[in-house]
Amino acid sequence: MSELPSADRKSKTDEILEYFVSRSNEEVSIERLATDLRMNQKIVGSIASRLAARGIIARQSRGVYVHKEEEVKASTVKGILNHLEETIGRTFGHQIGGKIGISSVKDRDGLAGLEDALERMGDVIGKGGAVNLMRAVARKVATPSEYNYILAKMDISS
């Protein structure tokens, strides 16, 4: 079987981040991470160090890291939904914005609201466009830790 085209593969950083998110609050060594993901240990160490510098994971001891679990604040979700609504209105016009109906999303405080908005956008502008728009707006509104949490939990990482 041939390898996936490069556009369909996840980056090494995304794979490592997903690994940490799936093992939230569990200490993971670089050796174990490299073995489980079948990656070079030096590359894994470098990426883990970068993620720690960005505050996404925390270094527990030499070569051991843990994911810093951070729930997304309700104000962040509301900000993302408001920004999505504004962006859709400016980009596609208010008629399309009304058809998508971001303002009528029921749960405006949690990830369920973002998932609902993503589904509504996908129905009108296509799944790929909806995912790209959600990523762009979330990156602008959320903290880096919240942004990565959203991508991992909603399974929309690049």
Could you give the topology of this structure?
Blueprint: H1 12-22, E1 28-29, H2 30-37, H3 41-53, E2 57-61, E3 64-67, H4 74-92, H5 94-100, H6 111-125, H7 127-141, H8 144-154
Antiparallel strand pairs: 1-3, 2-3
Helix pairs in contact: 1-3, 2-3, 4-5, 4-7, 6-7, 7-8
Total beta strand runs: 3
Average residue-wise pLDDT? 83
**SSE ordering:** HEHHEEHHHHH
Low-confidence stretches: none
User: Which of globular, elongated, flat, extended, rod-shaped describes the shape?
Assistant: elongated
The Rg value, from CA coordinates, equals 18 Å
| Tally of DSSP helical segments | 8
Largest sheet: 3 strands, antiparallel
Q: Give the termini separation.
A: 23 Å
Estimate percent helicity.
55-70%
How much of the sequence lies in strands comes to: 5-15%
What strand line-up does the widest sheet have? 1-3-2
Integer tally of domains = 2
Sheet/helix structural class: mainly alpha
Care to describe what's here?
The relative contact order is 0.14. A three-stranded antiparallel sheet has the order 1-3-2. The longest helix is centred in the middle third of the chain and has 19 residues, at 74-92. The chain is mainly α. It folds into two domains: 11-67, Arc Repressor Mutant, subunit A (Orthogonal Bundle); 74-154, no CATH class. The model has no long low-confidence stretch (mean pLDDT 83). The protein has eight helices and three strands; from the N terminus they run αβααββααααα. The radius of gyration is 18 Å and the shape is elongated. A hairpin with a 2-residue loop joins strand 2 (57-61) and strand 3 (64-67). Helix 2 packs across helix 3.
